[in-house]
Amino acid sequence: MIENLPPCPKCSCEYTYEMNALAVCPECGHEWIPAESGTDAGDAAGERVVKDSVGNVLQDGDSVVVVRALKVKGSPSGIKAGTKVRSIRLVDGVDGHDIDCKIDGFGAMQLKSSVVKKA
User: Fold this and answer.
1) pTM here?
2) Does residue 98 contact residue 50 with C-beta atoms inside 8 Å?
3) What distance in Å separates the CA atoms of residue 14 and residue 26, rounded to the nearest whole number?
């Protein structure tokens, strides 16, 4: 048990409490691991980095190109290689699907970062 819990990194509330391995803020409900919040620069570096198939770092709003043909369940034709996808959003998806996007002709879907490259 940690005696001196740090204040909340989001709202600076002093009344944080410990719940299992997490520190919790009663005012805003933010939960974090106290050991990770020791440095302010560590917050940006602690975020998950998503890379495309060739190693470029992806960010929200980037445009990407599909590098190989993909089958789409329920569709007679899949997504062809070379299809450009604009304004991606990075998410913590299910089963490795970490890109949320809209593709013309298909609608909203999730893609794996390993099948796209930055445009």
Assistant:
1) 0.59
2) yes
3) 10
